[in-house]
Model the fold of this input.
Amino acid sequence: MTLTRTTCPYCGVGCGVLAGADGTIKGDPEHPANFGRLCSKGSALGETIDLEGRLLAPQVGGKDSDWDTALSLMAEKFGAAIRDHGPDSVAFYVSGQLLTEDYYIANKLIKGFMGTANIDTNSRLCMASSVAGHKRAFGTDTVPGTYRDLEEADLIVLVGSNLAWCHPVLHQRIAAAKEARPDMRVVNVDPRKTATSDLADTHLRIVPDGDIALFNGLLAHLAETGALNRAYIDSHVNGFDAALAQAQQTNPLDSGLTEAELDEFYRLWSGTQKVVTVYSQGVNQSGCGTDKVNAILNCHLATGRIGTPGCGPFSVTGQPNAMGGREVGGMANMLANHLDIENPDHRAAVQGFWQSPVMAPQPGLKAVDMFRACADGRIKALWVISTNPAVSLPDADGVAQAIANVPFVAVSDIMARTDTGDLAHVLLPATGWGEKDGTVTNSERRISRQRAFLPAPGQARPDWKIMCDLAGKMGWSEGFDFETPAQVFAEYVALSAATTDFARDLDLSLFADADYAALIPTQWPANDKRFFADGKFYHADGKAKMLPITAPAPRAAGDFTLNTGRNRDQWHTMTRSGKSPRLGAHLAEPYAEIHPDDAAALTVTEGDLIALQTPTKTAVLRALITDRTAKGQLFAPMHWTRQQSSAGWINALAAPVVDPVSGQPASKMNRVTATKF
Ligand code: SF4
Done:
């Protein structure tokens, strides 16, 4: 069996995979992300490539149709909305599952030709707060860390990250490094005890959103104990005094930790030069997620613990191509190639390069606001691509109603039946993993190829091709006459070269003459390039910025705090991973973790059903009684959809509360009551 060298479609680790059409799956020993390792999800990929449930032909009005009919109708509806109601009456909602080429074309089409930045993505639920925090501190959305830093660190602090389940191969790499260097210390900061806590030397059980109190307290401790790097601050950082003054106003006990726990952690952090702070959704998915990111970055900047091996902050992305989406400007508040949509010179340069008729004049609607605009009638034509917001966004019932309120909805997907697809006027069959070609960027800025090893089923087309075909129908053939994803990638690289006048981190010159077909996994701007090694950042004066961060008030006692997240063996709404019997055996039904004392107070025993309620919604789940979840808190996986388990579907309970800076929903801080069912 011939094996094709490709990349796993699940998490942001971006493992290399050798895949065969007969379902053979092996870890790629030559891929620098995983060196042959795979986790349970990656190794079960061969069980997920059948065609059961696939959408194989365009559908119009619920009936099989053809591409010409479907795309002609879309062109007419989007064109009419723009003509009659203006560009901001149309919107795209896309996905971190898209390949970079898909993402690039989607952004070019809507921003440069339709004339609106109403394009947002399910990556808004993943890392938008990290993007905003990076831009505030560094002047760019730069992730300075590499996976090798994790192996070279003497202290790894994992904040709000269940790496063992959500980025398993990174967890394996840390475990191997720790075994080889027993002096390496791992601290896990998380309200919940997880499989990741089991690897850690110390689990710091903060209260939900206690991160700012913890890291503000660390900054104050560093100042008190003379552990700041004054020379680094003076040369490379603005905003130190205000940030420290605010930190000194914070009571670190508001983190929920004891004085002894704080003292031990602060001594360990300040006494270790090579510290990597890894953070993920527990930081990002919060009403103060951007501030949490900056509270962490403040500590690294105040000590110069950034830009050197084994050192620095490291945001790990949940999705396989959240990073590639960021690079091509895949969100409503971004422009292509890390350029700034709010900068008129940047907009003009991109429009000139694209030779496009218009350019979105300002940022568009972020995810939650986009669906509010669907609900109140502002959006007249919506295209949902490769994602399922009717079940995955907070207030998912409200989102479903909002989508149903849009006069024209198109959905591109690999599956025939999804909660969002059921609301569409036009369904477009897309090729899936193993059937399409393109690139993805993993959490350490490494661009890898996804390669096809299966034929496109039925009439399915790659997403970038569907978008180009629609553009052609709307009269823009010239800007979208790509025949291969290699040509799209080449234009993306050329845009980078054409805009070098604008100082920023993204530099793709390494890829200018790359052989796309044979492209090996490569980090931008160069393999082993270390950002910020020279103390130069991307604000106008070349300095980084520390921000004064106010800790949120401790939460009042009362209802339960419902935290949602991932299971080890499932991915998102289980469209692909749900096909594998092996993966389904891990945790087979919706459940809610509840502390033994809370279970006793509710007279709930193991296996009972409990009802979680908001004023308008109820979910019924199996009780899993464990002290891994703290008293007053609950944890439930977010995978089950309305179609799979109408009772156990949890996202209906999530309130659409967002971080005011990033617009990222606070998916880990939902208020519910709980009763025995
Ligand atoms: Fe795929 Fe992530 Fe597992 Fe690697 S760690 S095999 S990228 S799911």
